[in-house]
Amino acid sequence: MARRQIGYCPQFDTIFEGLTVLEHLQIYGAIKGIKKSLLPRICDKAIKDMDLGDYVHIRANNLSGGNKRKMAVALALLGNPPLVFLDEPSTGVDPQAKRFMWNIVSKISTQKGKSAVIITTHSMEEAEALCTKMGIMVDGQFKCFGSSQHIKDKYGTGYELEIKIRTLTEQESDEYARVKNLPQKLDRAACEWILNENGWSFLIEEIKENGQGEEFHRLFKEGQKVDTNEFLRWQFAEGQGNKAVDYRETLFREFIVLEHYGNSFKLKVSRDNYSIGFLFGLMEDIQ
Predict the structure, then answer these.
(1) At 157, phi and psi to the nearest 5?
(2) How far is the C-alpha of 287 from the C-alpha of 244, rounded, in Å?
(3) How far apart are CA 239 and CA 176, in angstroms?
(4) The dihedral of CA 199, 203, 207, 212: what is its sign?
(5) Is 6-120 in CATH node 3.40.440.10?
(6) Which residue of 19, 111, 235, 275 is surrounded by the most CB atoms within 10 Å?
(7) At what angle do helices 39-49 and 21-31 cross, to 10 degrees?
(8) 8 Å CB contact between 99 and 131
């Protein structure tokens, strides 16, 4: 097989740590048979594409983990090989570098259409973001192969839903405070009155240590009052959020709240023969 037929992303133990980024690219380019006259321009393009311009003359052992990954991917892509193997290219990098890496891989495989990319990863999120076909291996054997949706339909056990409830605008909270003649600061009794007034008395139990209103509880315990607008926005988001969650809980056989912070809710629900279209409609109904 010709030397330029396959691009492989080397692991860190095959990177020569005493060499700079540019020297790595020059050596790998020469190994792949790139003409000497073309090598400087190709190396410059690889550096630009992988955003390594600030690290051209930095030794590999002084690079961060994310930049080492970028350099390894750049080495694999030299010469536009028709087949590229990437072994967990975004492992150990920060979210911003991971998204950057995904954009590069997507550009190579779909937009340019010059290379087929085979990726190994433990991240289902990465596989869904980059791959048109996915295979799952267990103990070295393929257990399933197909599109993301095919695998989910056949083997999936449920869905994860993320809900974000809108919050009151400053104008809305100001108007509510004006109509109800509320002061700029509220004590516990006033807060409980507002919750009862809006039909969200269950939130009174959340104003406690380790509750959703823990910050308000701390201020009351210290003998302080809470900001009216801040409390109004909190009680609106919590009340509407719990209302939305309670309604959706009645629709699924299995229902778990995985995370809840601020006005965001992350839910895990059973499939129950619901289609993706139904779930999108369900999300659109959230007010």
Answers:
(1) -110, -10
(2) 8
(3) 16
(4) negative
(5) no
(6) 235
(7) 130
(8) no
Span(s) in the chain for CATH 3.40.50.300: 6-120
Q: Is 186:235 a contact under the CB 8 Å cutoff?
A: no
Return the ∠ at Cα 136 (arms to 144 and 133), rounded to 5°: 75
pLDDT tens digit string along 2-61? 444 455 555 544 555 678 999 999 988 998 888 889 999 999 988 988 888 899 999 888
CA distance 277 to 254: 19
- The pairing of strands 185-186 and 226-227 is antiparallel
Q: Where do the H-state alpha helices sit in 53-123?
A: 65-77, 95-106
112 and 45 Cβ atoms separated by less than 8 Å: no
| Spatial separation of the C-alpha atoms in residues 33 and 3, rounded to whole Å | 7
- The share of the chain scoring above pLDDT 70, in percent, equals 88
